[in-house]
Structures are given as C-alpha cells and as structure tokens.
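Final report, Chapter 2: Outcomes

The project's central promise was a pipeline that accepts a single protein chain and returns its three-dimensional structure in a standardized token representation, suitable for archiving and comparison. That pipeline is now operational. To close this chapter, we reproduce one record exactly as it appears in the project archive, with the input sequence first and the structure output second.
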Amino acid sequence: MYYYLYLNREVVACEAPKDIKKFKQYVPLTPEQKAFYLANPGATIQEVLAAKLQEQRAFDIEAYKEQRLSELKQLDLLRRQDLCADYVQGDALLNIANGTPDTIITGNKTAAQVIEHDAAVNMAVKAERHRVRDLILEAETKEAVDAAFASNEINTIEV
C-alpha cells in the first residue's frame, strides 16, 4: 500500500498505479511520515508532514463561553423572527402613528394588540436569554457551559 498527500489536504492510501507520479497533486509520504501517519491516524496534515504531534493547546473556556453566547443570541433572534412578523409590526406601527391603533392588522389582532404581543415576545425571549447568559458566564468548565446552554427554553416560548 502506498500513501500520498493529496492537494496538501488529506492523506490517501492506494495501490500505486504505474503512472501516479505524473499527477502532481499526489505527493508520496516519506517512510518516516508514513510510519507516523499509521501510528497516529487522527493527526493533522501539518503533524503528518512534520512527523511529530503538536503540543495540545490549553482549552480556552472564555472563548468557548463567547462561542456559546453567540449561538444563544442567534437562537434569540430566530425565535423572535418566528413569533413576530416584521411586516406585521411595521404595519401596526404605521397605523398607531396615523392614530388608528384599532385597525385590524392580521387575523383578529388590532395594531395595538400586535405591538403588545411583539413587546411581550421580546421581553420573554430576552429574559430567557439573560438567564442562560448568566449561567454560562458563571460556569467554570466546558461541561457546565454546555449544561447551561442546554437549559435554554427559548424555542419553547409562546406568548
């Protein structure tokens, strides 16, 4: 079996065809690289090329918290979009500005009711996001951050 580095992205193993050398995107591994790759199949391409494992970087809990908080904000935004139609809210605001808050906007809701509903949704979603944010910020381990994030109930909020 022959081992090649393909396009500097992955190691491929194959029975070497006679004309493989004319394909420049296939670079054969040295015997040392091959031995390293076989001993460490999960190694990165850089590690295979160097035939040496890189030092493991320390887990950055603060960066992980920021990542999870970003995901939480995205959930918040998506839930608000699900529960509050922007065009309906725009129509409602326009009717309120024109002095006609009792105009039916959607279904059986008046402009004032649409605005009231959207404000309640925003408050409920924001309160849940802040609750989970505080738990994430207090967490000291990856598992605690994940548990805090998993405790969110943003997608179950109904108003």
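Archive annotation: Residues 61-156 form one domain.
This record, like all others produced under the grant, will remain available to the consortium after the project formally closes.
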